[in-house]
Amino acid sequence: MLVLGAAWYLNVHWKGLLDKELRKYVAESSDSLYTLAYGKINLNLLTGNLAIHNVALIPDSGVYARMVQEQRAPQVLYHASASRLQITRMKLWRYFLGKQVDAGAFILSDPEITITEDRRSVDTGRQRSFYEAINKNIASFDVDRISLQQTRLRYTRIAEDSSKQMTRLDNLDVEVRGLEIDSLSQHDPTRFLYARNFDINLDKWDYRLPDSLYWLHVSKISYHAIERSLDIGEIRLDPRYDRAAFDKRIKFQQDRYDLAVRNIRLEGLPRMGLLQKKILADKMSINGGHFHAYRNRGVPMAPGDKYGQFPNQVLAKFEIPLRIDTLQVAGLAISYAERNPQNGEIGQVDFPRAGGTFLNITNIDSLVQRNGHCIADLHAILMQSGKLKARFDFKLGAKDGAFAVSGQLSDMDGREFNKATKALGMVEIRSARIKQLDFNLQGNERSAAGIVKMQYSNLRIAMLREEKDGNGSERKGLASLLANLMAIHNENPSPGQPMRVAKPRYTRHPQKSFFNLLWKTIFTGVKQTAGTDMLENFGNQQ
After folding, report:
1. What is the mean pLDDT of residues 302-326?
2. Residue 333 burial (CB count, 10 A)
């Protein structure tokens, strides 16, 4: 009875003492900015288990306003709550005698966290670490595991111009292991936020883009601090409207994208990189997905130009510091479709199996000075049988978007291009064997030039005209005959002649894209190789 009575007395006494100290610690550690509120406390002295119900960490708006005036307000403000905080295997005697928190686990039920980052706030005071903030009341903090399951997170970022950007995450799981907060752990480089391991898992995240034309869906996100890795099951950009409805909603021409990339993994992430709003990775890989683009040329062109939008120019303007040493991509299906306003038909180019390796993707000035080249070695199947490979060299930091590209297309049946040429060029390729097409180009956002060499045989084409009733196209017999006899070379090299080598030069249309410049420059070389002086006149007449 004496033992039970002593246990009961200590249980009641220590619970009351704990009740008073918790609020006091939070207020003193935050300079009265935060208040800790909670309901009932259940304490089991024998097991060391403690339960705190309806717990909430609440910022005081009045105190924060005063801090703003005094220029000592933190830029990040938190509001957190949970229906229950369960603490297991806590060594209570260490806490009450030595102010040491030593427990098996902290488990939060139904947690909700609201984070507000206000970039307008200025804190001129000395920045304290979390240990420095609590060590007046807590000598050390040692917890084996902290678990937040099905967390609802709300994040608001207020920019210097008072504009707001809000992010909402539901069903977020956070698992922290080996948390130690003391004078030594705050300087331990092997820890992340004082923890040995830090895992974050999110089942899905959905976001409607501001233009209301797309949904962004991200699923199966897992971050592992100890491995310094991030895994994402899939990222999808889904258009909200089909092609016809999309065309009606846009005022000016733009591509309609349908994108999905799967099995994404980033390795070698600095543990503080994401918190510092940096994307830094030694290696990134993507395995599977698709990228389909569509454009209706019947929609009016937007005013202005597209200068400054080449890949290396966009990378330089990206607001977040970025470094990916190696990006490996495999298993992508790519297509580009375009509607011809003259006949209403859609032509399409397919790359059903594409992949490659990108090296030195960065916009960090010091890294660009060290290595000013982003290299991309790509490969794909073109249409059904063409074997395509290309090597891009983007000059990092180049104001004019300077680049170089070389590549080869081999062993292709030219009739496969009819999927594009019949609708967009009113030309049918009746036969053609492309043995090898080599290209080597240099250019910038204004123009491109280089060398194109195409070896082919048995080229025959048919000029098309649209049926008056709109039900497709028919061949122009006489025009086709003249084109095959007089306007094109049927093979290269011709019998008894050396290989014809083209040196195309093409000036970019200021409203067209980077890939349009590449295609137009290569096609100029193809026309110079396959066509006679009459080919241009034939095209103008048709």
Report:
1. 93
2. 17
